[in-house]
Design the sequence.
C-alpha cells in the first residue's frame, strides 16, 4: 500500500514518535486504505501547509467496520468488568505517556495553542480513567419479591455496536469520552472523526491498539465532507448499529435522529449552543471578567459551551465592559508553534467569514465596537485564519449572533435592568446547552439556576466541564449525557428477568 510522505513539521511541533502521525484508517485491527483508494488532505489552519493525506472512506468501508465491530462485540460483551477496566487503564497510561505528541498533533491540525492542546489531552484522558473505574460499578438490581414463587432481577447489558461521530474542536477529548464509556459498558465502536482533524483520532486509536484492544473493537474511518454522508447513512441503515453518539450541529443531529428511527437506535446528541453569561449588579466584577475570559476564549471561542451572549446589569455595565475590553485587548494571537499565543486560528475560511459577518451585521444594526473587530494579520502565519479578539457593546436581539453560534473570539454585551429581564433574554433561544451567571446573592443563585433553561449551569464559574459531571443539553441542544455515571447509562440496556416456579410445597 502507498502512504503519504511524512510532512516537514515545525521544529516545535515535531513528534517524538513519528509513527503516531497515521495516514490510514483502522478497520478490524488493520491499517488500510479506503476500499476505492480515495484520499483527502489534512492541512494546518495556521499556515495552510499539508500535514497528511488520509483515506476518504465511504459506504463499503463503513460496512466493513460494522462487520468487524459486530464480531468483536460478540466476545467483548462477555469480558469481565475487570478485563474491560484493565484495557482502559492501559489506554489511559499510553495517552499520558504520549501526551506531548498528542498535543502537538492537536495543535497542528486544529490550531489551538500548545498549552491548550496539552490540557485537552489530560481532559480526554480523565474520561478514560473515569470509565475504567465505572466499568467495575455497573450494577443491576434484585427487586423486592412481589409474588410468592417469583424472583425479579434487573440486568444491565451493552447496547451493541456504537457509531461515534465527533467534531473538530476537541478532536481527542470528544472521541475519548465516547469510546471510553462504550468499552466500559461492553460495546464495540465504529468512529468517524471530523474531516478537519482526523490525525488525532487515528493516533488515539493506535495507542488503544498498542494497549491491547482486540481487533475490530474500535474502528476509525476518516471521511471528507463529501463522503461523510455515505459513511453516516451506511451506519444509520445498518440494524447492527444499535446506538449513535454525535457531537456537532443541530441540523445534522436532527437528521441523525430522524434516520435512526427506522431501526430504532439509541441516540445521544450533543448539539449547538447559544449560552448566556449573566452578570448581576451584586457580582464580583473581576471574578466575572476572569470567568468570562476562561469560558469564551478557550480554543479561540470555538467550543459549544462558549458564552455567545453576555448580559450585564445596568449598575455595573460600563465598569464591566471597560475591564473586559482591557483583558481582551491583551490577548496574544498567533500560531501554536509561536510559543506565547493564547488565541490560535479559526479552523477554516468558513469559520473566519462567519465571525466577520456577525461583527459587520452587529455594527450595521447599531452595536458599538469596543475593541478588535477585524481579521488579524499574523506575521508568523500570513495565510492563517486568525481573527482579532473582539468586544461589542450595545447588543440587541435582532443581531445575528443572538440566534446563531458565532464560534469565534467575539463577545457581544447586552444591557439589562431587572432579573426577570435577564432570565427572559437568556431563555429566548431554541438552544439549551450551557448557561452562566455571576451573583453573590445566595437566594438569587438558587432562583436563577432553576429558571435558566439549560442542561448545565455555571454559577460564579466559567469552566464547568468535568469527567465526573453529566455533560449535555436540553431543547435543540440535544439529549443524552456524557461523562459521570449518567453517561454510562446511554451505552446500556436495562433487562428485566422474572424467574418463576420457585415456590416449594411444605413438607409433611
Sequence:
Amino acid at each position: 500500500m502507498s502512504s503519504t510522505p511524512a510532512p516537514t513539521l515545525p521544529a516545535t511541533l515535531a513528534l517524538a514518535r513519528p509513527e503516531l502521525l497515521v495516514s490510514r484508517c483502522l478497520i478490524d485491527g488493520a491499517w488500510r486504505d479506503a476500499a476505492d483508494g480515495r484520499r483527502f488532505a489534512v492541512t494546518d489552519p495556521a499556515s495552510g501547509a499539508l500535514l497528511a493525506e488520509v483515506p476518504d472512506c465511504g459506504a463499503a468501508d463503513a460496512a466493513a467496520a460494522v462487520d468487524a465491530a459486530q464480531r468483536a462485540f460478540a466476545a467483548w460483551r462477555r469480558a469481565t468488568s475487570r478485563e474491560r477496566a484493565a484495557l482502559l487503564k492501559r489506554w489511559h497510561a499510553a495517552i499520558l505517556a504520549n501526551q506531548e505528541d498528542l498535543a502537538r498533533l492537536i495543535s497542528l491540525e486544529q490550531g489551538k495553542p500548545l498549552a491548550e492542546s496539552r490540557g485537552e489531552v489530560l481532559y480526554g484522558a480523565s474520561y478514560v480513567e473515569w470509565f475504567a473505574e465505572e466499568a467495575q460499578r455497573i450494577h443491576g438490581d434484585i427487586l423486592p419479591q412481589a409474588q410468592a414463587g417469583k424472583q425479579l432481577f434487573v440486568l444491565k447489558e451493552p447496547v451493541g455496536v456504537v457509531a461515534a461521530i465527533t467534531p473538530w474542536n476537541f478532536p481527542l477529548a470528544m472521541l475519548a469520552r465516547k469510546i471510553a464509556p462504550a468499552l466500559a459498558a461492553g460495546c464495540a465502536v465504529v468512529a468517524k472523526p471530523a474531516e478537519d482533524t482526523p490525525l488525532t483520532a487515528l493516533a488515539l486509536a493506535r495507542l488503544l491498539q498498542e494497549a491491547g484492544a482486540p481487533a475490530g473493537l474500535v474502528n476509525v474511518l476518516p471521511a471528507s465532507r463529501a463522503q461523510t454522508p455515505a459513511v453516516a447513512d451506511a451506519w444509520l441503515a445498518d440494524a447492527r448499529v444499535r446506538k449513535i453518539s454525535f457531537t456537532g450541529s443541530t441540523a445534522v443531529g436532527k437528521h441523525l435522529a430522524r434516520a435512526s428511527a427506522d431501526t430504532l437506535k439509541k441516540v445521544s446528541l450533543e448539539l449547538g449552543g447559544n449560552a448566556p453569561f449573566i452578570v448581576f449588579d451584586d457580582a464580583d466584577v473581576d471574578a466575572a471578567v476572569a470567568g468570562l475570559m476562561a469560558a469564551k476564549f478557550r480554543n479561540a471561542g470555538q467550543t459549544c459551551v462558549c458564552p455567545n451572549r453576555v448580559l450585564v446589569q445596568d449598575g455595573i455595565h460600563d465598569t464591566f465592559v471597560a475591564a473586559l475590553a482591557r483583558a481582551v485587548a491583551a490577548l496574544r494571537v498567533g500560531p501554536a508553534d509561536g510559543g506565547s499565543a493564547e488565541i490560535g486560528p479559526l479552523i477554516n475560511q468558513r469559520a473566519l467569514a462567519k465571525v466577520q459577518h456577525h461583527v459587520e451585521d452587529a455594527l450595521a444594526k447599531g452595536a458599538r465596537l469596543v475593541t478588535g473587530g477585524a481579521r488579524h494579520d499574523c506575521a508568523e502565519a500570513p495565510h492563517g485564519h486568525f481573527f482579532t479578539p473582539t468586544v461589542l457593546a450595545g447588543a440587541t436581539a435582532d443581531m445575528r449572533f443572538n440566534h446563531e453560534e458565532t464560534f469565534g473570539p467575539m463577545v457581544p454585551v447586552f444591557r439589562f435592568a431587572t432579573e426577570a429581564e435577564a432570565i427572559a433574554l437568556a431563555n429566548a433561544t431554541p438552544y439549551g446547552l450551557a448557561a452562566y451567571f455571576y451573583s453573590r446573592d445566595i437566594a438569587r443563585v438558587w432562583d436563577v439556576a432553576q429558571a435558566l433553561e439549560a442542561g448545565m449551569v455555571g454559577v460564579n464559574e466559567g469552566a464547568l466541564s468535568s469527567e465526573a459531571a453529566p455533560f449535555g443539553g436540553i431543547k435543540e441542544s440535544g439529549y443524552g449525557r456524557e461523562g459521570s455515571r449518567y453517561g454510562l447509562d446511554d451505552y446500556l440496556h436495562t433487562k428485566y428477568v422474572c424467574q418463576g416456579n420457585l415456590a416449594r410445597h411444605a413438607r409433611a
Notes: The chain has two domains: 11-137+153-270, 275-459. The mean pLDDT is 95. The radius of gyration is 24 Å.
